[in-house]
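Risk mitigation, structural track. In case the binding assays with heme C fail to produce interpretable data, a predicted complex structure has been prepared as a fallback.
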Amino acid sequence: MFTSRLLWLGLFAAALSVVFLIGALQLRPEGFQRGPAGTRIAFTGGGGACVECHARTSPGIVEQHARSAHAVEGVTCQDCHEVREDHFAAVEHYGTFVATTPTSATCAQCHLTEVNQFLRSRHALPAWVAMTGVEALENSPEFMALYEQVEERGILDPVRNSLFAMEGPEITRFACAECHGIGRPNPDGSVGNCTSCHLRHEYSLEQARKPETCNACHIGPDHPQFEIYEESPHGIAYATMGHTWHWEAEPGTLTVSDFPAATCAICHISGFGRQGTTHDVGERLSWFLHSEISERRPGWQENAMRMQQVCHECHSQRFVSDFYRDADILTVRINEMVEESQTLMAELQEEGHLTPEPFDQIIDFEYFELWHHWGRTAKFGAWMQGPDYTQWHGVYEMIRSAAHLVEAATELRGHHAPAAASGEAMR
Ligand code: HEC
Ligand code: HEC
Ligand code: HEC
Ligand code: HEC
Ligand code: HEC
Ligand code: HEC
Ligand code: HEC
Ligand code: HEC
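Fallback model:
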């Protein structure tokens, strides 16, 4: 019994090593010859010793790189990873120095246009500052200057910064920072993480263009853009017919024959019809929809025109201007609803019923959710065609939260102060 088991084990081990040998042979660099979109091309990516060795130690990375436009164009591992000895992330590596974490400065060597557009957007430093507060940049005049160069940086919100501080880095490293790191300040003085949308090492257009890429961050009760999109006619077209669209089409030349319905990228980033490609995602927006009370953006008329040009590729002029008229009216109406509750909170503050700290009384949470979750969701739902989000996850929840606020206000006033209980602030 025992010996036969040993025999089997021996045979098994022998078989394993044969499989392993064949595997190793196939993992020679010449074995990686698949090009973008599954076409077979010769791997001209160069890479020499890096590719040779990494095909054994991390074949996944070599395979991904081999499928990329970078490999086709002769961009090598060294182009992105090899650095000088004094680089902040340099590690000595087989006779040279490599950085594990190329930054947007690496990409800027060849893609300066995209990096500069990105730097103008709220995806850059404003995303980081939204989380940490502007204090995080105070020791660096260079980053502060880059931050202040973003015209649409908007208004800071200390309420959420206090949540960030309250939770602490043990938690926020896996939470806020995973999403807001898209605009992180890097130790080499550059800003942002292009890998947030362009997964390494394939850098596939199809991947960056699909809405699931945005889903990494634009999801959840406070900014459910992905869920809204799924419900919209555009999202339905994508889910049902998207497999027939031209995901790898040359950037800057996209038309309705490539994309017969809109995606997040088509509306916010892609060159489509008469609009050029942009990595400044604010370029086509007219409102600060994410704010407590939405205001117009600087240059909002031109921004709205750019977005409407995208819509016009598929919809009539009248359809689009009627839609904008109605969505503007809804935005103002949601502002009014938030203002009513804001007034009530200000009164309670004045009467001494609220502590100055955010998030230490239940009523703080109720008001926060009223605008930060439900108010924003109602606006996003309307602008991006998700009626269930405008209605049941939006305005209905706002009305419910407002009723809770009035009840909580009555209770606070009854218990703690002479002021008469009153729901008048609500209407
Ligand atoms: C002789 C084999 C060999 C060669 C040649 C080689 N590497 Fe590596 N490399 C490795 C191994 C092994 C690791 C560690 C892998 C692990 O931790 O799983 C590694 C790790 C790395 C890392 C991650 C470093 C870290 O600290 O996490 C990078 C980046 C890298 N290599 C890039 C390169 C580049 C670029 C070249 C060509 C200039 C290169 N390598 C050449 C074997 C090699
Ligand atoms: C277009 C630029 C680019 C090219 C080309 C490139 N890399 Fe990378 N690589 C990156 C970026 C960006 C990261 C992630 C940086 C971060 O985590 O912030 C990375 C991460 C890595 C890592 C560490 C993370 C991990 O997943 O293990 C290794 C190892 C690595 N690359 C090896 C290679 C090898 C080998 C090649 C060539 C076959 C290569 N890279 C080609 C940009 C590139
Ligand atoms: C050494 C130059 C070089 C570096 C560094 C470089 N790229 Fe590229 N990249 C190219 C070239 C060349 C192409 C192919 C031609 C083109 O589309 O411009 C390309 C294409 C791309 C594409 C389009 C892919 C396609 O299928 O058309 C993306 C996305 C991209 N790069 C992202 C990045 C990112 C992100 C970085 C930094 C992590 C980076 N690149 C670093 C040279 C570079
Ligand atoms: C799942 C990803 C994700 C997480 C986690 C996340 N955020 Fe955000 N945050 C976003 C996105 C996406 C927006 C943009 C919403 C919009 O414009 O519609 C945003 C917007 C904001 C804004 C408003 C923008 C501004 O500049 O006023 C602030 C402030 C903010 N987040 C702070 C935080 C803080 C603090 C945390 C952690 C306590 C956090 N976020 C966690 C993705 C995230
Ligand atoms: C918010 C997601 C997002 C981020 C962040 C992002 N990109 Fe892109 N990128 C895209 C999308 C989507 C496309 C495809 C545009 C299209 O449909 O034509 C693209 C296309 C590109 C292209 C090909 C453009 C062309 O005209 O050939 C390059 C190069 C590129 N990105 C580089 C970068 C660099 C460098 C960074 C970091 C500064 C970056 N991207 C950050 C989403 C992103
Ligand atoms: C890694 C997380 C992440 C990914 C992935 C991401 N975003 Fe964002 N996005 C953010 C954050 C964080 C903000 C909020 C920044 C702020 O307002 O301060 C934001 C803001 C925006 C804004 C509003 C900008 C403004 O000026 O108010 C738009 C539009 C946007 N993103 C579109 C997209 C699209 C389209 C994609 C996918 C192609 C995408 N994003 C992918 C994190 C992300
Ligand atoms: C049909 C075009 C269209 C599609 C598809 C679309 N959006 Fe939008 N998006 C808009 C319009 C229009 C606005 C509001 C514009 C304004 O303010 O004038 C908007 C607003 C936004 C905002 C709010 C920015 C702020 O002010 O806070 C974010 C973030 C955003 N979209 C992300 C996404 C993401 C992520 C997807 C995909 C899951 C997506 N969008 C799909 C057209 C679109
Ligand atoms: C690439 C083409 C394309 C673009 C760009 C596009 N749409 Fe659409 N849109 C469609 C298609 C296809 C439908 C589904 C039509 C149907 O329901 O029969 C649709 C439906 C709609 C609907 C619902 C219409 C209805 O009758 O129920 C609205 C509202 C809408 N789009 C608004 C917009 C706005 C606003 C923009 C620009 C911000 C935009 N669309 C951009 C293709 C597009």
